[in-house]
Amino acid sequence: MANDQLEVLNALDVAKTQWYHFTAIVIAGMGFFTDAYDLFCISLVTKLLGRIYYQKHGAAEPGSLPHNVSAAVNGVAFCGTLTGQLFFGWLGDKLGRKRVYGMVLMVMVICSIASGLSFGREPKAVISTLCFFRFWLGFGIGGDYPLSATIMSEYANKKTRGAFIAAVFAMQGFGILAGGTVAIIVSATFKARFPAPSYEADPATSIFPEADYVWRIILMFGAIPALMTYYWRAKMPETARYTALVAKNAKQAAADMSKVLQVEVEAEQGRTEQGGNDFGLFSKEFLRRHGLHLLGTTSTWFLLDIAFYSQNLFQKDIFSAIGWIPKAKTMSALEEVFKIARAQTLIALCSTVPGYWFTVAFIDRIGRFSIQIMGFFFMTVFMFALAIPYQHWTLKENRVGFVVMYSLTFFFANFGPNATTFVVPAEIFPARLRSTCHGISAAWGKAGAMIGAFGFQYAEKGIGVRNSLIILGVVNLLGLLFTFLVPESKGRSLEDLSGEGEQENAAPSGSRQQENGTAPV
Length: 521
Prior knowledge:
This protein is an all-alpha fold. The protein has one domain: Up-down Bundle (Growth Hormone, Chain: A), CATH 1.20.1250.20. Helices cover 74% and strands 0% of the residues. The longest helix has 52 residues, at 431-482. The model is unreliable at 268-276 and 503-521 (pLDDT under 50).
């Protein structure tokens, strides 16, 4: 590796934390804010969709989405996300991070707006349109995972890199919070404007035609934060690591970085030589160096998301089961939206958001490995503590205890593997495969999320909540074991981690000594 190439990257590694680093966190983080908002707000409106479009005349209970429709509405965005992670991950290594970054955002904006529109009024038409656009919304969101992580890791210095990548990811917490808050405001506004009795008092008037606007407004709101950051994303320069290591243009990398960061770098030559370190993803060399790493990042993310998403998407069912949310027929349609949103926002505020920021605060002190082991360990403990005496938790006097335990599993998911599985793949792979490998790891995560989202729905009906929680406890235990395949990346440079610095380090000792002004012995 040419020396000037390393000089640019070295300057980045030791650069002081500057204003631009925080700007980058916000620009990349707003993508994640939108991602979380879009992926989680659907769980706030599924009951409302059931009441509007699947109401049976004269039924004792309000309408609800049939199982297959509910699974499709909840899960179709995950299918899109998985495809987007693989496709845009690969594209980010081929075309460069910056060029693909704006593209991803526009897909998210257009599909957020479109998912609130419908072709036709029939339930089939409405749900088909919703599923179609949510698939493509997921596709855009999928691209944001590898690109945001890679961009942040390539901009950061090695001392605070973990905290910066985790801070981008932590914006998800605010996205979930915003989803709940928007749902509360919209449903409360409509409820005040159009008062309605509970379903059991009067089924016909418990839902009014204007309620159809509520879910559309909630879904479309996701376009606003994404649209706000488009201009700033377009202005971001390509990362120096991509320009120097993949495009092989150290001069350009130095020029780009000195525009945004206060680092003085002189790169003499315009283009750097192609190194011999150019093995591909499917080569034996990659398998030898990074095969176990990739297995570690994919398996831990996969196992975590099975547990994380089944917990998250089905909070509302668990709240109903323990009586935190009253029976559907005792509420009007909008009252139900309001109460589900309020419960989810409370959980997010008390456990999800603090968990993310605990990771940001401690990841560069404790290290990724320790946080991930600790998180999986406590998630396993709390899952079994919820599952084994499950009958005890369903009693009215123990409900608060159940919610506290449930919140703690969330806290340790976020101050634990939910953040670290996102951070590590952006650090340990070579620059020309970094975005691709992050996309592959994230896609395995989404495969786990789909098992969580679809599987839990059927498992709960088939084997009950208690057995489902036991299975999730076992899944977390497996996650803990697979963590041992992932290396610790705290405080090390990206080139050191990926082996890209090896060639420079392996330069003949003679040439090194001559550079230092000493003659070879």
